[in-house]
Design brief:
The complex is a heterodimer of chains A (about 550) and B (about 300). With about 550 residues, chain A is an all-alpha fold. Chain A contains 21 helices and no strands. Helix content of chain B is about 35%, strand content about 30%. Classes of the chains: A mainly alpha (about 550), B alpha/beta (about 300).
Amino acid sequence: MKMAPITALGWEIFGWNRSALLMNAAIGAALGVAVNVVGLAGPMSIMLLVSFSLLLASSFSYIDLNTRSSRAGFPRHILVLPVATWMLALVPILGGAVFISAFVLLWLRFLTSIRLSFVEQLALAGAITALSCWMQAMSWELIRVRLAKLAVLVIVSLLATLSLVSLLSEHALLLGRTGGTVTLLMTMSCGYFFAWMALVRSRRGDAGEAGPSNKRLRTHGVLTFGNSRMPELASGVEAQKWYESRVFGRLLPICLMIVCTLSLSMLLFDAVRSKPSGIEIGLVLLAFFMVSPLVGSAYAWKNPQLPRAMLAPFFAALPLDDVELAFAKLRASARSHLLGVMIVLVTIAAIIVLSDNNAKIEGIWTNLVAHQGTVGAYCVLLLLALFAAVLTWMAGALLMAAAFYFAAVQWKNGALKYLVVFLGLLAFLKYTGWFLLNRVTLQLLLVHAHTIAWVLLAVVLILATLSFRDYRRSNPLAALGKVLAGFVAMTAISLVLIWQVRMSAQLHWALSCFAITTSLGALIPILRLPVEIASNRHR
Amino acid sequence: MNQQTENIIDIRNLSRHFGNKAALQDVTLQIPRGKVFGVVGENGAGKTTLIKHILGLLKAKQGSVSVFGMDPVQQPRRVLSRIGYLSEQPDYPEWMTVTQFTNYMAAFYETWDRRYATELLEMMNVDPSKKIGELSKGQQARVGLCAAQAHRPELLLLDEPSSGLDPVARNEILSAVIRTVSNEGRSVLLSSHLLDEVERVSDHLVFFSQGSMVLSEPMEAVLSKHHQVIVRFAGSLPWQKIPGVFKASEANSEWQVFGYGEMEASIHGLRNLGAEILEQRLLSLNEAFLARSQSRLPLREAA
């Protein structure tokens, strides 16, 4: 049977993504059913929708990814097919855009209270298509410099968002309806044109070639950001830490910089600047809480397109003990996380400075100072930042250990455990808010805070016993010395800050227990990761 | 020197299954210091699985693996720091320049010799300022060979190193590296499909077939014991009765009989069966491999 080129290409794309598509369809359906059954509130449902749409977008990125060089490109075997270049570009873009748009619109229709007219639905699909065009153009190596790609994507996302907001807004804010329509159409058609151009260059064999200006930009980038500078590596652990930082350490700061740049850019518009600044701050914090644990798990990736995380033979054969390998990953992730926290804090400060409407923030601060005094108020802020930073890092490190664990077990076991984790997460999302806001349960938490700390201490001691064999292979005191020092320092700082805050003795006691619990919790991935790496490395 | 320290690799009764497939079956192998061991076998014979066990990337589930008297799974750093490894498909980070890569690797090995690394790169004609991703496959293999060698490992593990090397590099560089290692009293385990290369550089040959080690002999013995006898015999030749004969095939009443051991003993056995001897000769390693790879008979030398 002879197929039309477009049908053959469609099948090729389906084959390329078969497992990812089927898996995403299953997860999407399960997510939809679960959200419906559990009845998640609107914002939570939207948050899940946004994160899942991003996952879908990554599944539809039709690229040949070379993970060793971190370079992508259009699959070469397709380039030699006797199909017009415009069609080669159109089919994957359209396939992805249609699938994602359909998913988003169905979700909004059945799982939220948002109702969109036909034109509004068309506008949403248009924005998704515009973004798909640009993402493909960039992933097909239209330009090679990553920083330039990032800048382009940030600008395009901003334009698409502004157009969409203008089209959906009843008051025709920002660009106005006509301006929004024109901008969206321009963004979409330019995106397609550049995607087509990237393929033309790929077919010519010069995609991603650095032209003279491109080379200058690269050189400038290297001089500015020290891209190719290499520190003196004193040991294998240092070398591995450098490698992990170089490959994975930039993910979180880059993701956060995109979100932060978008949030700050929105403040260029009067209409946004006059809205309460809490919206932008909320967006930045939401992105941080969602992205940082996920990026933490990236340190377990061998290949982002492979579902199974495993150590490549080259790294598995390096002369490092499993504990040292785990520590290199954890230290690199901690450093990157710290940088991420700094970016978020600086952005929040900048938003407050740039916004014209800080009334709510100022109100909260005034209240806090009135109750706590200036020192106490700063202590509260520091405590919140400290707990947020440690808890999100801990979540990422736990996900990293889980990724190694799931790769080492049979896939059926893994799938079962994923399901359990997934359902647990949903239940957590649904009931945590209710649990924490309920006076009775809050009181129970306060009364039994020390019990929770004791239970966690027991868990940590059990894990320490189980991990002892792996730690014994290295010098356990040398390996754990810094960790224990960090644990003591973190607990001490938290306790000092807590006792600076004016509150009841019961709250002091409960918060102190919480601080100790958090520090103990941070020990769990540290104890667990070497064991999971060992099971992955020595199969 | 006792046996424990003499043998740098000591594998006993090692078996490994992947699902229903037996990747290794009851392998027992000792590799002494200062020898070049060539490992040959068809695809899927178990060569890479054996090497992964030596590196500790696979855990011995049945049997034991000891490298330098240690378990490579229990003590990866101490074992791997004394091994140089070049894999069939080197998966080095392509974004690093060659200089960055050698600096990165140097941090892992206390015995890394920077001058020697530079010399090796010069000998292999590799531009140190280039990114690994910009090098050809052959050039990448040369970088890998340099990285595997620059810390002067006590054991050099080469898993199909020739797949990326061009003939010039194979003949000159690889042979030179292996000779140097061997002359310095260090050991090499070379797994390869290229039998002429294995024949040229190895002291000892190990032959795997379908997960089993069917032969482990000094190279000289392998070359002097594999033979072929062509005989005329009408009907079905009961060649299985002759010790050492592992394969025979017939065309127009002429039988090609392949044996291992004393050729005279095989000839004597064939004459006793009433066969007329037409031709007799020793086999090259290539011919022996082809004959062996279709036969899994256990070693039973012709006396």
